[in-house]
Write a structure and sequence with these properties.
Strand order of the largest sheet: 4-3-2-1-5
CATH superfamily of the domain at 3-77: Ribosomal protein S16
Number of helices: 5
Structural class: alpha+beta
CATH class of the domain at 3-77: Alpha Beta
Mean pLDDT: 79
CATH architecture of the domain at 3-77: 2-Layer Sandwich
Low-confidence stretches: none
Number of strands: 5
CATH topology of the domain at 3-77: S16 Ribosomal Protein, Chain: A
Strand content: 15-25%
Shape: elongated
Length: about 220
Amino acid sequence: MAVKIRLQRHGKKGRPFYHVVVADSRSPRDGKFIERIGSYNPNTNPATIDLNFDKALDWLDKGAQPTDTTRAILSYKGVLYKKHLLGGVKKGAFDEAAADAKFEEWLKAKEAKIQGKEENVAQSKEEARKTALAAEAKRKAAVAAAVAAKNTPPAEEPAEEAEEVTTEASAAEATEPAVEEVAETAAPEAEATEAAAESEAATDEAAADEEKKAEE
């Protein structure tokens, strides 16, 4: 029976979650499996991998063939490197203690690399958060300025009103002397008219007296 180490899909649409299983190569992808040896969640950064190291190594020794994705997962967790070291021990290239020392050194370097990636991700998230906060503060300031400008009356209107009042006052002052001049001019004309009327009345009275005397 050909045995494969592969992924079995779970989770929601658009957010898959996988089980790492050992199954017959003839079984459907999400069908019956022999044993579950771990899980893989690609929705986190970095991806979350939970793997039973010893069982994965044991199945590799038994001849189980991983798919491309599970091979990458096994390599990431060091299972393939451990298998390679054990092969060197069997061939007599080095002893088991040297193999364990090499593997421990590899694990430390791998953990440091993962830690650096996690720190970079956290730093990027923090910078993105600060940028978003700065953009939000700028947007709020712009909205507040627009509201203040809308609620504040224009500064030129009072000056225009004062100018209109000053113009009206000047026009009134200019009109008063003209009225006085008209009044002063009209007074002599009225006196002259009155004198002419009295003279005409005296002339008419004299003419009437002369006619009366002529009749007598």
